[in-house]
Amino acid sequence: MKKVxxxxxxxxxxxxxxxxxxxxxxxxxxxxxxxxELCIVTGTDWETVKxxxxxxxxxxxxxxxxxxxxxxxxxxxxxxxxxxxxxxxxAHFFEPEVAQKVMDLLEAxxxxxxxxxxxxxxxxxxxNRGSQITYSAIGQWADPVAKxxxxxxxxxxxxxxxxxxxxxxxxxxxxxxxxxxxVDVAMPGIDKAYAxxxxxxANNFAREEVLFIGDMLEPGGNDYPVKEFGVxxxxxxxxxxxxxxxxxxxxxx
Length: 253
Fold this sequence. Notes:
Radius of gyration: 18 Å
């Protein structure tokens, strides 16, 4: 019997990068919370995850919200709703000087390879998310369709990762694909399987009690480490698939 439903964010519970949780998925979340523990795992920073997910859940009670677990920056932060407010359970932050050096490396690599763009004041290309440095090639808030079209075969991001890898090795850090356009720099071993393991350890969940739902479960996808870890997974193409699956879960609950 599954007790914990873990979700990727982009294109799994929403319609694209950093979009609000799909209205139907959000409604189903409210119905499921309490019957199950629900968890969102994403590379996005905490402030954005909170704004586009829990803050959008209509009619939810504090008691139900207490069953929602949020793991931003690929599980290097963990937040729970306790006593009527969100409380951070842990965070693994970079030292400021290391974070700045990583940001400089990413900018230099993007400019050298011809992938750097200049944005207005309402968006950024490189962000320090505390426990993760993220390069978002055309901006964090770019149109989701444009994001998907930018690097569908991962070649651009592979080139950036190859460019910065020798320097990252000196810091003991690694770079991985993030969403549609992003490169995430973090400590070694940080992926969505890491997040699921931390969730299980913190709450004494058994692996067989966990079900993961995501849109990038193929080898090389950023959800694949969860499948490789041995957690049962359901692949989806988009949030409409997710809504269909959740309606099925509710029907048998």
